[in-house]
Design a protein that fits this description.
Number of helices: 15
Shape: globular
Largest sheet: 7 strands, mixed
Structural class: alpha/beta
Bound molecules: pyridoxal-5'-phosphate
Order of helices and strands: HHEEHHEHEHEHEHEHEEHHHHEHEEEH
Helix content: 40-55%
Strand order of the largest sheet: 3-9-8-7-6-4-5
Radius of gyration: 21 Å
Strand content: 5-15%
Number of strands: 13
């Protein structure tokens, strides 16, 4: 065996989980991502989706995607920088700028690439990136690529953030980057305080709205809108892969920033534009989210119902107040076994284990869509009660 293969052959954790019958990844879905999906020929309830708006199989969005494919074809065959910009991309950028409330918008191929290409290129060696220790992997990767020193603050801890700000040279750029809603824990960043500290220390703020859009704010605009801090947050990032029922991502900010990014951000320049179908789908999703406020209202009703149900049951769910509900198990293998048992009971949920979290913080991530019914949530709560009792997680 060659050296590389011999080294990698020592990594056997997936094989061990498969042998134990609890490997929970790459479960192939053979239907649309409705609240009910088909896996291995069985119907199971989907409580692992990030499409909080529930629009992912909406016929109007499908139609828009088909029409765009007819008009523009299936791909763009190039980067937005060169031959890959369509008038449809420009239309989507203008629509998001107006929706989010920022001067300009750039569309990237994924949300991951937004964070990678924005966080890595705005600051120099003498500047600083300051980020929450629980920020999404894409922000961490973006900051690893930057030349600036990266200062981490304790999760959503404003004293810790202020200490880091005090360490910085006052006349240098300080870019604070935070998730709006944290993707695994479901808690919400303290944006009013972050903005206050940013003003005090002359810092720039970037918020990742991947899990805020479709959930918070008017028409699902996100946490910045919810807290009324859109004007104070310099850069608002979002993805199309969650509530926008598509694929791609955006950054919304002032023209001085986009002018620089358009000519320096490598994950924007050196990759192909999103497909016409993805562009048209995102455009349509924004219209529907604005026109159908019932989605957000219902999402919050079932979210509050589920939060109450899990708390009453005695489950440990941390400080979440959103449709992302973490159920702490605090053991890798138990998390796999509970996920498997829930699946056998007809529920799809996501296990979050090491190295995504520390071994003592493993959890099951339960997430809701606006298209779930209250009865489906009740069914899920009953199944959780049964499985959690079996594993001694509740009484
Ligand atoms: C907080 C956060 N930011 C960014 C991303 C990346 O988004 P995308 O799926 O568009 O690459 C994700 C996706 O998991 C996320 O949870």
């Amino acid at each position: 065996m060659k050296l590389l293969q011999a080294k990698l052959a020592k990594y056997t954790a997936p094989q061990q989980a498969k042998a134990a019958g609890v490997y929970p990844y790459f479960r192939a879905i053979s239907s649309e991502q409705e609240p009910e999906v088909i896996i291995e020929g069985r119907k199971v309830l989907m409580f692992g989706s990030n499409c909080y708006s529930g629009l992912v199989s909406d016929p109007r969005i499908k139609e828009a995607a088909i029409e765009a494919t007819r008009k523009y074809g299936t791909g763009c065959a190039g980067s937005p920088f060169l031959n890959g910009t369509l008038d449809l991309h420009k239309q989507l950028e203008a629509r998001i700028a107006e929706y989010i409330g920022k001067e300009d918008v750039m569309i990237y191929s994924t949300g991951f690439e937004v964070n990678l290409g924005v966080v890595s290129c705005l600051t120099g060696r003498e500047d600083y990136i300051i980020r929450d220790e629980q920020d999404h992997a894409s922000i961490i990767e973006g900051s690893r690529l930057a030349f600036s020193p990266v200062l981490k603050y304790k999760h959503n801890d404003m004293e810790s953030l202020e200490k880091q700000l005090q360490r910085c040279a006052p006349d240098k750029v300080k870019l604070i980057v935070t998730d709006g809603v944290f993707s695994m824990e479901g808690d919400v960043a303290n944006l009013p305080e972050i903005v206050r500290l940013a003003k005090k220390y002359d810092a720039t703020v970037m918020v990742d709205e991947a899990h805020g859009i479709g959930v918070f704010g008017k028409g699902g605009r996100g946490t910045c809108d919810h807290f009324g801090v859109t004007d104070d947050v310099d850069l608002i990032m979002g993805t199309f892969s969650k509530s926008f029922a598509s694929l791609g991502g955006f950054i919304a900010c002032d023209k001085e920033i986009t002018n620089f990014l358009r000519h320096h951000s490598r994950s924007y320049i050196f990759t192909a534009s999103i497909t016409p179908a993805s562009t048209a789908a995102a455009l349509k999703a924004i219209d529907i989210m604005e026109q159908e406020p019932w989605r957000q209202e219902h999402l919050w009703n079932i979210t509050n119902f589920a939060l109450e149900g899990f708390r009453e049951m005695g489950c440990e769910i941390g400080t979440t107040s959103t449709p992302i509900i973490p159920l702490y198990i605090r053991d890798d293998y138990k998390t796999y076994h509970v996920t498997r048992d829930l699946f056998d009971e007809g529920l799809f949920v996501n296990p979050v284990v090491t190295p995504a979290v520390a071994p003592q913080d493993t959890l099951i991530r339960f997430s809701l869509m606006a298209t779930h019914t209250k009865e489906q949530v009740e069914f899920a709560l009953e199944k959780f009660r049964k499985v959690f009792r079996k594993h001694g997680l509740i009484q």
